[in-house]
Amino acid sequence: MSMFCFQCQETANNSGCTVRGVCGKSETTANLQDLLIYVLKGISIYGLEVNRFERIDNNIGLFIAKSLFATITNANFDDERIISLIKEGLDIKKRLKERLLSVSIQKEFFENIPDCALWYPENVDDFHEKAKEVGFLSYLDEDIRSLKAFIIYGCKGISAYADHAAILGYEEQEIYDFLMEGLAATTQDLSINELMEVLKRTGKCPPPVELEKGEIVGGFAHHQVLALKNKIVEAVKTGKIKRFIVMSGCDGRHKSREYYTEVAKALPKDTIILTSGCAKYRYNKLDSGDIDGIPRVLDAGQCNDSYSLVIIAQKLAEAFDITDINELPLSFDIAWYEQKAIAILLALFHSGVKNLRRGPTLPGFLTPDMAKVLVEKFNVKPIGEVSEDIKAMLSGN
Ligand code: SF4
């Protein structure tokens, strides 16, 4: 096997791309991306320790976010760029280590650090050699590998949004710190339960800050939808709206995604679809009609507006005096493709959402045992046959 990548929904046989990515990613690029993540883990180990006595520069957090973003699906196949990020990362790692050596740090810290913090290559040839041994297959236990992948992919998704926010002038130290915490956790010998705790924290991002106001056709975050709140509440009370189905997420090229078009077509006319992200392109051209002037497809915007759907659900819960979001007449039937959707899934878990469908397939990086844990803890299930899924969602399952 020359490479191993199982981070997206199109991974070969839903288990892993091992020769060349279905996306076109080469073996060299895949391995260099693994090495970049390895270097980021080393930075994180030193960075967290420096953070204990002085704040590390935000530029280091931003570097981690940019580098993780460079490794998400279809973001960057430029080997020279990945190599230059690895070199920059090695420099940062060295500076952080020197800072620690310049102050009085417990000897045990340096006695217990893993290879990702200690590794310093002599030249770029060393990069290629090392890259072959530091990917996900280096985690030998499949369940541990599965959870560590889940954490890293969640961090990648967060990084895509964090990098974008930084370009717009908004940065959160808390997010950068968590990226280091998540990466460092994947270097430790943690149990399944301990990793589950880290995974839960991965979904706890500070809410986004509104950068501008405006209106566009098709929705603009939660404001457009909340403007209809009173009408919506009234329609629920009078029984004109029976259920909301959240069909957010990613689109993709596979025929299996027609499932979402078919669900949208077959949902009863007294249901409302709440959407965000490009999943909507599977059904937003259908003539879905309205319920007393409320469009049956309410669009919160792009995938980074998915947080708006949680706000909408919380506002509806307030209106109906419900404390548990899961008691609302609301079902989640979400499509995913890459790692931003993993971050959003984790954010939904963190918001207390349970009982959701995920398609067109469950992530290939989930082992059967870890998929079972997700079912038990969050009632996540794969999509099935359209009419059966609709029947189940309408009855609250
Ligand atoms: S990003 Fe997806 S398609 Fe590309 S190599 Fe990884 S798993 Fe395969």
Walk me through what this model shows.
Its EC number is 1.7.-.-. Keywords: Cytoplasm, Iron, Iron-sulfur, Metal-binding, Oxidoreductase. GO terms for molecular function: hydroxylamine reductase activity; iron-sulfur cluster binding; metal ion binding; peroxidase activity. The chain is an alpha/beta fold. The protein folds into two domains: 12-202, Substrate Binding Domain Of Dnak, Chain:A, Domain 2 (Up-down Bundle); 221-394, 3-Layer(aba) Sandwich (Rossmann fold). Helix content is 50%, strand content 7%. It has 16 helices and eight strands. The protein has helices spanning 27-51, 58-70, 79-101, 107-111, 115-118, 124-131, 142-167, 173-185, 192-202, 221-226, 229-237, 258-266, 306-319, 339-350, 368-378, 386-394, and strands at residues 243-246, 271-275, 290-291, 294-295, 297-299, 330-335, 356-359, 380-382. Strands 5-2-1-6-7-8 form a six-stranded parallel sheet. β7, α15 (368-378) and β8 (380-382) form a beta-alpha-beta unit. α7 (142-167) packs antiparallel against α8, α7 packs parallel to α9 and α12 (258-266) crosses α16. The longest helix has 26 residues, at 142-167. It is elongated. The protein binds iron/sulfur cluster (SF4).
